[in-house]
Design brief:
This protein is 1% helix and 38% strand. The chain is mainly beta. A 5-stranded antiparallel sheet has the order 45-46-51-48-49, with no helix packed on it. 27% of the residues are buried.
């Protein structure tokens, strides 16, 4: 058996619980004798993977079933959905990689007794040590095919590739997994949007996360044509084979059938994915008509095909004309019938009251009698027989013949069935308890259809909360009591109910206004009869979540706390009276505006800096307190800061280099931090430098700034609180004689003082003394406060994102960068809010992902 720890059966059932637990406290007493219901022992955890494990325990004499609980190590216990369990082994899914779990089990014995919980069993799922592929590319796109490529992953044994239509279900590409780093997919539809993704499979059952979906569109124009060349073959009394020509671009087919001139109905079980269909359940000697249509991509479908007619064979096999029942006991009976001329065998079926017909074991029979065993005492049954003749012909069934087994049947069918708490998709089923019943079996069906067992049974309560129903649909359900000695009652009478339907329509005319860096106002048209509206939002292909404040009582909503320069999707649903609600609307899309890491309200259109008059003189108030800003990026202690914003526009043919100079004695022992962006927009940290010259007036080159029109520079000066002074911000043309260091023809970059200065750039690589290019350094490790992250960049390997995850892959920290102008990437991460344990630091670069583990300690 398989179970998903993330399931919610226990939560659903808890909502309607009633019974012994609801009774008021009363006088206690203890029955004589020993408690013979013992707790299970010898618990084992086997077959552990990243997301699954098998739990096993020794059987307990007298146990009727077992209840199982789980928890994260040291956390709260939860019931495992789907229980209780009759077996002594379970395969559990939906676990998190690299996570500590505990589980325990309890015996459930007769007369509602149960044991203590067993000693907990602990285990840890496998962690994720397989890196996600990068560099996904789609090429060779045609009307019906495309080639997918990706970069190799160190240690990967193979790669799994999936494809889907937008917002459809993912399917593995034929041939997956692949041992190479490319795959070609065929049989696509022309002019259709698809997306694909790839995952690396490493040794010992490890695999990486899926890459983000990569969209592409096949060439050509899309036409969804109706099938042609309809044929009917292999016609018998009750069956026929329907065949038609396949349609290019069709994903599936819908088939309709009717008696000649009657009402069309969809043949059950569709849609169909072949271009043929074997149908059954037809009436002998009857004329039928059928037709078919194509179902294509993007919800397209063809017209119906032309109609084809056929007639089933007539009945030439006679029905047995006499039936009788003899040798009736508590558990068996002999069934007999008159012979039929030309019959080769006889099929026999039996059922209890209101039950489904089932073939008797051993059917078909070659004589004219059959004995049936394993019946329940004191129970009424009915049976029927059919003659089977040559060439696949057979007779009609005989009328059902009733008989009742001997003995007293003490297991009565439940009564007083009623249905409450009916919504569009759920309901509560309740019945009266039966004396002597150990459990109950429950069946359901669409009104007048085929009965199905309700998953998860048998049930030990006299009520159930049932979900997953269809709105506006008629259902029936019934229940049977299971008593001792493997006996059970007849099925109860069916209980009929109808789920609530969609009585209000989905909102339309979605649009957005007031879009800012971190918010937007969402609008839609009013829906008649709506009491409120629920609104959900997500990043593309992410998980939907409700906007704070939802549901709303008006036809607009404000959403805030969004990420800048990010695309979002949103949708809305109308909530009407009596717990009705509409389907979700179509999806609206918007993108927040660009953003700034710091408060740039004071960003001004400063004087344009001419390279011939290149220094911008800055003087102002004293350095303020630190307020809520972070500590300086430099390494010297300071007590305050001063912010300076300015903007300069340079002609396209200039390559400006920015430096910062302090005036003598004014801001000695200061730390300068430099950030750049466009038009007072996104701010990227470039570097910092510490002036330890004690006011001797020397230059403080901070970082090369490759500029252009609209470039914004933000400088933060960290110094001693209350200190005042002046400084210059100078701009030099890369190609002019005014270049600061006189090193014309070379790019001069100054990096933080903890490293050496770069002497030159050779063969497209940047080298930092004491550190190899492409090397990730974490220090200190272990760490308890500030973690220094350093990476030697090259022109081919530029850092774009830093991610810190725990060992299950959950993202704890994420930062994005534009670090293409820095030889060395340097970041400081505050880990004081992280729990002690192992974490993974990943740098996502233009040349792939590099990662190292770090240990966080108290």
């Amino acid at each position: 058996e398989a179970a998903d720890v993330g399931g919610a059966f226990d939560e659903a059932n808890a909502a309607g619980h009633h019974g012994i637990a609801d009774a008021e406290a009363g006088e206690q007493f203890t029955t004589l004798g020993d408690d013979v219901c013992e707790a299970p022992s010898v618990l084992n955890t086997l077959n552990i993977t990243q997301t699954t494990a098998t739990w096993d325990w020794d059987p307990v004499p007298g146990a009727v079933s077992y209840s199982v609980q789980w928890r994260y190590a040291g956390g709260t216990w939860y019931n495992l959905p789907g229980g209780p369990w009759s077996s002594t082994a379970l395969t559990v899914g939906g676990l998190q990689p690299g996570t500590d779990y505990e589980w325990r089990v309890r015996s459930n014995c007769s007369y509602w007794t149960y044991s203590e919980w067993s000693v907990p069993e602990a285990f840890t799922t496998l962690g994720n040590t397989c890196t996600m592929p990068t560099g996904t590319v789609t090429s060779n796109i045609t009307d019906n095919s495309a080639t997918f490529s990706w970069n190799p992953v160190a240690g990967a044994v193979s790669y799994s590739v999936q494809i889907r239509l937008p917002n459809g279900s993912w399917s593995f590409v034929p041939g997956s997994p692949f041992s190479s780093t490319s795959a070609t997919v065929n049989n696509l539809n022309p002019g259709t949007n698809y997306e694909w993704r790839v995952r690396a499979n490493c040794g010992y059952g490890y695999y990486s996360y899926w890459t983000p979906g990569m969209p592409f569109t096949t060439t050509g124009s899309f036409a969804c044509n109706a099938p042609d060349w309809l044929q009917t073959a292999y016609v018998t009394q009750t069956t026929a084979s329907l065949d038609w020509s396949g349609v290019t671009g069709a994903l599936s087919y819908t088939v309709q059938l009717r008696e000649a001139g009657g009402t069309w109905y969809d043949y059950p079980g569709g849609p169909w994915y072949n271009s043929w269909l074997n149908i059954g359940g037809l009436e002998p000697g009857t004329t039928y008509e059928w037709r078919v249509k194509s179902n294509c991509a993007n919800g397209e479908m063809s017209e119906w095909s032309y109609i084809l007619t056929f007639t089933t064979l007539g009945n030439v096999c006679h029905t047995p004309y006499q039936t009788w029942t003899t040798n009736i006991t508590d558990h068996s009976a002999t069934l007999s019938w008159s012979p039929v001329s030309g019959a080769e065998s006889y099929s026999v079926q039996i059922r209890d009251q209101w039950g489904s017909w089932n073939y008797i074991p051993g059917s078909p029979f070659y004589g004219t009698s059959a004995t049936v065993h394993n019946l329940s005492p004191g129970t009424t049954y009915e049976w029927r027989v059919r003659a089977n003749c040559d060439y696949g012909n057979y007779s009609y069934w005989t009328p059902g013949l009733h008989f009742t087994t001997l003995g007293s049947y003490s297991c009565h069918a439940p009564e007083d069935l009623f249905t409450t708490n009916i919504t569009q998709t759920s309901a509560t089923w309740d019945w009266s308890p039966v004396s002597g019943a150990v459990s109950y079996s429950v069946q359901w069906r669409y009104a007048g259809g085929t009965w199905y067992n309700l998953p998860g049974g048998p049930w030990y309560n006299t009520w159930l909360n049932v979900g997953g129903l269809q709105p506006g649909t008629e259902y029936e359900w019934r229940v049977r009591a299971n008593c001792g000695y493997n006996s059970y009652s007849d099925w109860s009478y069916p209980e009929f109910f109808v789920t609530l339907g969609y009585s209000c329509y989905a909102p339309t005319n979605l649009y957005e206004s007031n879009i800012t860096n971190d918010g937007a106002t969402l609008h839609w048209d009013d829906v008649s009869g709506a009491d409120s509206y629920s609104v959900q939002i997500r990043e593309p292909w992410g998980s939907w979540y409700y906007i704070p404040g939802s549901p709303f009582n008006y036809n607009w909503a404000e959403v805030n706390n969004l990420d800048p320069n990010t695309t979002y999707e949103w949708r809305v649903r109308a909530n009407c009276g009596y717990s009705n609600y509409s389907s979700w609307s179509y999806t609206g899309t918007f993108t927040t505006s660009g953003y700034n890491n710091y408060d740039n309200d004071n960003c001004s259109e400063a004087t344009w800096l001419d390279v011939n008059n290149s220094c911008y003189y800055v003087s102002g108030s004293s350095i303020g307190s630190t307020a809520s800003y972070p500590a300086p990026q430099g390494n010297c202690p300071h007590s305050g800061y001063k912010d300076v914003w300015f903007k300069f526009d340079m002609p396209d043919n200039y390559n400006p280099v920015a430096t910062i100079r302090t005036s003598a004695g004014s801001l000695n022992d200061a730390v300068m931090e430099l950030y750049v962006g466009n038009n007072c927009g996104y701010m990227a940290f470039l570097g910092c430098e510490d002036d330890n010259n004690n006011g001797n007036g020397s230059d403080m080159p901070v970082m090369t700034v490759m500029g252009g029109q609209g470039l914004t520079i933000f400088v933060r000066i960290w110094g001693h609180y209350g200190n005042t002074g002046t400084f210059n911000i100078c701009v030099f043309d890369y190609n002019s004689n005014n270049f600061a260091d006189g090193d014309e023809g070379h790019q001069v970059i100054t990096i933080p003082e903890t490293f050496s200065k770069v002497d030159h750039i050779a063969d497209g690589e940047m080298v930092i003394d004491g550190q190899d290019a492409g090397e990730l350094i974490l220090a200190p490790n272990p760490v308890n406060d500030i973690l220094n992250v350093k990476y030697g960049q090259t022109t081919e390997s530029i850092v774009s994102t830093l991610v810190v995850t725990d060992m299950s892959g959950k993202i704890m920290v994420r930062k994005d960068y534009d670090s293409k102008d820095a030889v060395e990437f340097h970041e400081q991460i505050d880990v004081t809010d992280l729990a002690p344990g192992l974490y993974v630091v990943q740098l996502r670069t233009t040349n792939g992902i590099v990662s190292e583990r770090v240990s966080v300690v108290d």
